[in-house]
Amino acid sequence: MDAPIDLIVGLGNPGPQYDRTRHNAGADFVTALARHFGVDLRQESKFSGSTARLTIGGRALRLLIPNTFMNHSGRAVAPLAQFYSLAARNILVAHDELDLPPGTARLKIGGGHGGHNGLRDIIGALGNQRDFARLRIGIGHPGQANDVVAYVLRKAPREEQLLIDTSIAHAIEVLPDAVNGNWNSAMKALHTNGTAL
Q1: pTM recorded for the entire structure
Q2: Which end of the chain is more exposed for a tag (fewer CB within 10 A), N or C?
């Protein structure tokens, strides 16, 4: 795939009670990205989220953190994509990933939702289009399926959060290649850039 990126979405739940919880790793990524490039995320009610514009690697794009709950993320993504005539293949969605350990981030092109309710809702809202890119930010797995909901809605211990933050920083470093569609280069750099294997 060589599709460039026009929109980066960070998934999470709104409200202070969910701030910096594991499930908000995607939103934390977009917040860190905006801070890194010195832009302010501003509430935009018609898109049900906070948005910003910035330039990465010479390419202008938009940021979005939905202010809907996770399982309604598509209510923010689809209207913005439609308003600006953005194709699904030009969207990158950052989200927490149970199947990767803290300290690991991986880029992926397309696929299913893997049980992630935010991805599930976005796929449905985009008319079952699945070819958007994903930044999978590892948060680890609690070990038992019954423990997943409580696990993702809690804050990680300090040591794990530092690993998550490091993986976010590494992902930001490879973004110039990713947003310009140089996916092989971005994936290789991210997968070998000090993240856990």
Answers
A1: 0.94
A2: C
- What are 124's two structure tokens? 């449905």
Express each pLDDT in 157-181 by its tens digit: 999 999 999 999 999 999 999 999 9
- Catalytic (active-site) positions: 23
The 3-class SS string of the chain reads: CCCCCCEEEECCCCCHHHCCEHHHHHHHHHHHHHHHCCCCCEEEHHHCEEEEEEEECCEEEEEEEECCCHHHCHHHHHHHHHHCCCCHHHEEEEEEECCCCCCCEEEEECCCCCCCHHHHHHHHHCCCCCCCEEEEEECCCCCCHHHHHHHHCCECCHHHHHHHHHHHHHHHHHHHHHHCCCHHHHHHHHHHCCCCC
